[in-house]
Design goal:
Helix content of chain A: 10-25%
Largest interface: A-B, 69 and 69 residues
Structural class of chain A: alpha+beta
Strand content of chain A: 15-25%
CATH class of one domain in chain A: Alpha Beta
CATH architecture of one domain in chain A: 4-Layer Sandwich
Distance between the termini of chain A: 58 Å
Number of strands of chain A: 20
CATH topology of one domain in chain A: Phosphatase 2c, domain 1
CATH superfamily of one domain in chain A: PPM-type phosphatase domain
Number of helices of chain A: 11
Oligomer: homodimer
Chain lengths: 519, 519
């Protein structure tokens, strides 16, 4: 064990100046190059009603052989080959001649420089119609409220250890969201606060008795109000969980390889919901100002959650890892000496002080014992940080088969499928055509700061007429190109001669005050 | 089970406008009125060397029969009786004629209005000398560094379910802190960064080899620096844990009743460390400005930690409680209906979004099943909030015998003995004699806001000469009197006719720029 994990660390530490990849197929057990399956039909997820570029027919999927790109790219067989070419790394966008994405959304992507066989990012952009369940509230439907709701949906999925999870999520996650929203169609269209209790099912005793619709006013005085917004947040969170559970169920039958980060935007009834699970990032650039709409979930940012879990459930560490933190790896020759152990001050943050004091103890000198030689649960820093010496991202979908290298210890218990959801009220501000929401996988953000993105937004959009719908695609392309760089000196280099991103790069640019049609 | 906890809730909800007490002796099983033991001598905690009013001799403790007050009050038998009189509620302070507390600290206390037989608050104020362990760093001691360190120490302990834990903590916690600091005496006096590794013990192989003193410079480049300050924070945190463990060991032999909140101040080498575990509070009033130096740990502020623990370790809930949150208590007649369940938006805060998404799920409508009728792990609001329908404070010392009412389910796993430690650098600001650190048990803060305390600081101190050392005792007395009120209309009332605090009230006023002697 010690030698194995030590060499794993050596591998992590010895990588050069380029941003090291998150573990991908070559590093992981169980990673196969088997072709991803056609989009599995979720029993609970019938197909979306309306959609621009919704699921391709099964035959088309088969024709693509071992990989696929987003349907809205409308790639020909030749285009698909170019999109899969690591040497050329051609930037892909929807054709200017085709049907535009909703809201004139801009999109661009580029494949990695060779770190994995195919582009493991996936993307989805849909308009989804949600039909309400019949008589959810147990009373006859009010015809004036219409029949259902539409939401706009954008998703970026950054796969690792194979492309299967990202592809499955890109085809199905919005359907899970739709399923979760079905219960809420009537409630969200009713301006009064959501009821706390619904009758069991229409037609059962009590369903016609309006006293069962217990509203806030009839409950305890201590009761607080639930907002429509928080119901939508809950629906999105639960959809992520159901998507993850579906991957667990179907992983064998459909060869759901690896896992993926998921960054999703839902626009519904005037509000933009940004849900992030992983290390992709979303920012709004509004009048030159940067508004962060997500944060990354990595072994470093989630160190306390991971260590607390390891402390409370030591069986998950399998006797191979320790949740204790030493300032560096303990050497066998140091047995019997006393070393400082954490929590260290640089690991403290606000959530730490409120949480991990659960029983982890304060920093002190500790006599080194045999079990302290175990590998740390969280090791490395920055992009090199890993959970159990294996994975560099701590939230996302899939990874049900992920094991510690050369071991049978599952890592999934330490990963969370739940996103953090941030809400932006589009009606609270008069947006101009230059105000955009930018979504990018870590391939963009590894080499591009928020400020550099804002500068590119300004530079590119000012070169186009405000009503030119192609400006957002041009911006997405400029962002991808700026992160990829150009081939020079045996590598992809940025104008400042630093290394460009060798990762898959995918970018959505969503105009907030542009020529889009807001329903 | 249901009836029992339901009546417990009825009790909680039916209490009147006065701030309801935290559960004290009458509410709790295992609470006895046996006399507290004399301060047990901790095997790891030999007596403090220097101290103003350090531990009274055992005979004096016996003479006090069934209760005690802080030694520094120098109470005569008659004074002790007056201090124990619920009817008169006379304010107690150290005699003006006696030896002053260090730094001319002001202190005042008053007994409760009858909620428990004796005053269950305790206090301690000491100057503690820490002798370093011989040759901790494995090299001959540098004689120029002196022999040891002194720290100033103040502690407030708010007991519940008996006075034993508070009394034990007031006698021993500073000794645990001293023990923890012994290893650090040499290190804290050395201006260079603390070593990360110490030799095992003096005289063992390797101890004379300075290469074992691995400093930051010789370690991995990723290594960060440990500060002296963080070592002291760790020492205080670990002292709390050791104090709690000692209570667990000795609870039978010495009848350590109940538990206590602990609010502790350590002044060492220019810095003030404020450690809080419970619902006492410390604020600095500096030039009229309020600087919070602690926050309260209650079922409400720690809801997420508690629910996560209940989720990860459901066996701790004993089949009697649920970690799920409904907007109100579920009724048996609602079985089969669908009710919203949490996490609710009003429970979300920053630490929540980073933590509890571990798998608790998003808000949604859920079909009510039998197990949803279980009592919520956290119930009630504000001062009425309770863990497992029993206790209203979630951090502190003791409570090892605390069980759910009429049940054998232990509550201790949900309580944490770890304090949050905040540091204030006394050298970073030129303090005037009116700048003070105010410590108070919840008896003060239940009826007094931070701003009202700051106003009283200004009013009382301005009535005294800046160099009059009695002004801080006068201020402490004014704060206690202001929270107690005067007997009127069958109760203790404040000038605005609201109810005064019926709780024990204890206050320290520590001058930060007064006539105190800073070592």
């Amino acid at each position: 064990m010690l030698n194995r994990v030590r060499s794993a660390v050596a591998h992590l530490v010895s990588s050069g100046g380029a941003p090291p990849p998150r573990p991908k197929s070559p590093d992981l057990p169980n990673a196969t190059s088997a072709p991803p399956a056609a989009a599995p039909e979720a029993p609970r997820s019938p197909p979306a009603r309306a959609g621009s570029g919704s699921g391709a027919p099964a035959k088309a999927v088969e024709a693509r052989a071992s990989f696929s790109r987003p349907t809205f790219l409308q790639l020909s067989p030749g285009g698909l080959r170019r999109a899969d070419d690591h040497a050329g790394r051609a930037v892909q966008s929807p054709p200017d001649t085709g049907r535009r994405l909703p809201w004139s959304t801009g999109y661009a992507e580029v494949i990695n420089a060779g770190k994995s066989r195919h582009n493991e990012d996936q993307a989805c952009c849909e308009v989804v119609y949600v039909e309400g369940r019949r008589s959810v509230m147990g009373v006859p439907r009010d015809p004036s409220r219409g029949q259902g709701l539409c939401f706009y949906y954008w998703g970026l999925f950054d796969g690792h250890a194979g492309g299967g999870a990202a592809e499955m999520a890109s085809r199905l996650l919005h359907r899970h969201i739709r399923e979760q929203l079905k219960d809420l169609v009537e409630i969200l269209q009713d301006p009064s606060p959501p009821p706390l209790c619904l009758p069991s099912t229409p037609g059962t005793p009590g369903s016609s008795d309006p006293s069962h619709l217990v509203g806030p006013q009839s409950c305890w005085s201590t009761q607080k109000e639930v907002t429509h917004e928080s119901l939508v947040v809950g629906a999105i969170e639960n959809a992520f969980q159901l998507m993850d559970e579906q991957m667990a169920r179907e992983r064998r039958g459909h060869q759901v390889e690896g896992g993926c980060c998921a960054l999703v935007v839902v626009y519904l009834l005037g509000k933009v919901y940004v849900a992030n699970a992983g290390d992709s990032r979303a920012i709004i650039v509004r009048n030159g100002e940067i508004i962060p709409m997500s944060r990354e979930f990595t072994p470093e940012t989630e160190r306390q959650r991971l260590q607390l879990l390891g402390f409370l459930k030591p069986e998950l560490l399998g006797g191979e890892f320790t949740h204790l933190e030493f300032p560096r790896r303990v050497q066998p020759k140091e047995l019997g000496q006393r070393m400082l152990w954490g929590p260290f001050p640089w690991q403290r943050n606000q959530s730490f002080t409120s949480w991990a004091r659960l029983g982890v103890g304060g920093m002190a000198y500790k006599k080194i014992e045999l079990e302290d030689l175990r590998f740390p649960l969280v090791c490395g820093e920055g992009k090199k940080a890993r959970v159990m010496a294996t994975i560099g991202v701590t939230r996302g979908l899939g990874d049900h088969n992920l094991k510690v290298c050369s071991s049978n210890l599952p890592i999934k218990p330490f990963l969370s499928c739940f996103p953090e959801v941030r809400v932006y009220d589009l009606t609270q501000y008069e947006h101009c055509p230059d105000d955009v929401l930018v979504l990018g996988t870590d391939g963009l953000w590894d080499v591009t700061s928020d400020c550099e993105v804002a500068a590119t937004v300004d530079r590119v959009l000012s070169a186009y007429e405000p009503n030119d719908p192609s400006r957002y695609t041009a911006l997405a392309q400029a962002l991808v190109l700026g992160a990829r760089g150009t081939p020079r000196d045996r590598g992809w280099r940025l104008p400042n001669n630093k290394l460009g991103s060798g990762d898959d790069i995918s970018v959505f640019v969503i105009p907030l005050g542009g020529p889009g049609s807001y329903s």
